[in-house]
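thought: fold this chain, then report.
action: predict
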Amino acid sequence: MDFVSEAWAQSEAATPDASAGLLSLIPFVLIFIVFYFLLILPQQRRQKKQRELLEAVKKGDKVITSSGIWGTVTNLDKETVTLQVADNTKIRLQRDHVSSIRTSGES
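observation:
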């Protein structure tokens, strides 16, 4: 019986109050906020920008793929793009692999 009463007394003495529990959560909340603003939010912005770029691609646009191939869009499907990379050379690839539209200043 002595062990039970000692354990009960120790558990009551070691129990923190509610405010100490909330204070221990503050560092975790701050870490989550930092991760959100430094990692999650910029990634969402990049994804939105890429979606807008893919929706804006049209026939005749000069594009660069994610693998570095430069070409001119000759055909668009829902999921694929056909690029003309040379006079008689056309390749077909997934629409998601178009990384940028070339401007008129780029040769």
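thought: worth noting. Residues 58-107 form a domain with the SH3 type barrels. fold (CATH 2.30.30).
final: tokens above.
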